[in-house]
Every structure is written in structure tokens, then in C-alpha cells.
């Protein structure tokens, strides 16, 4: 089963960085096992463009649309046997330690 893993951070993380796992080790382990199909870091929210259509009119906004403390900073597409396996992979991701990781199955 495929899962989209949204990697999010608070604008002011509170975790002790000395306890956080190494991202390069996480990527290498999951790539080698075939569980991470694709992933990448995203540009800053300041580089975002929000696209909306209202009343047939195209509306564009630069930067993030909403004020929020949590920002999506990356993504990974995982191939897992089930949600339990996806959770085990996500809990080892560094951002699970000082941000949050959201798992969502593909429809």
C-alpha cells in the first residue's frame, strides 16, 4: 500500500537536537529496503503560490495563504505492507522528533 508522508515542522521546534535521528541514515535505510519510493525537501513557504478559482476568476497569492505554526517542509512516498509498517517508518524520521509527520494512504 502506498502512503504519502507529509513532513512538517513548527516554525520554532522545541526538541533536543542531540536526540534526533540522522536524516541521511533514514533515507539510505528506507531507499535500500524499497520502502521509500520518492521524497524531497520543499522550498521555503515564501516561495509558494496559492491557486484558487472563485466565480470563474483566477486568484493567485504569493507565499503561504494561512498563518500557521506548522509548515510542510518535505514529502516522501512510501510503499508499505500496512499502516503499522508506515507508522514504524515515520516514527524513525527526524521530523517526528521535532515537528510532525502525517501519513495518508493514496485513494
UniProtKB/TrEMBL annotation:
Q: What is this protein called?
A: YCII-related domain-containing protein
Its organism's taxonomic lineage begins at: Bacteria, Bacillati, Actinomycetota, Actinomycetes, Micromonosporales
Highest taxon listed in the record's lineage: Bacteria
Q: Membrane-crossing residues? A: none
Q: Which family does it belong to?
A: Belongs to the YciI family.
Which residue range or ranges hold the YCII-related domain? 1-105
